[in-house]
Design a protein that fits this description.
Order of helices and strands: HHHH
Radius of gyration: 19 Å
Structural class: mainly alpha
Shape: extended
Number of helices: 4
Largest sheet: none
Distance between the termini: 51 Å
Strand content: under 5%
């Protein structure tokens, strides 16, 4: 695969991304996880049909688990 030609806009974007990489990593986390394809496709279809983002799914699931198991214990 051939790399796209550098343009002033691409160079500026790359420079911005490089300079803000640490800031992004400190503010966000990515969960690398795996789910069976058929189950993942079913979830994606449901989310798309109901216009729900994956972040909303995680928040709702977390809140439901908090209600079920109680608040987080402070250690």
């Amino acid at each position: 695969m051939k790399k796209k030609e550098d343009t002033p806009q691409r160079v500026a974007k790359r420079k911005f991304e490089d300079s803000h990489k640490a800031e992004r990593k400190a503010a966000h986390i990515v969960w690398g996880t795996s789910v069976e394809r058929q189950y993942a496709e079913e979830i994606n279809l449901f989310l798309k049909e109901h216009r729900i983002s994956k972040v909303e799914l995680i928040r709702a699931g977390y809140e439901a688990l908090q209600r079920e198991y109680g608040p987080q214990k402070k250690e």
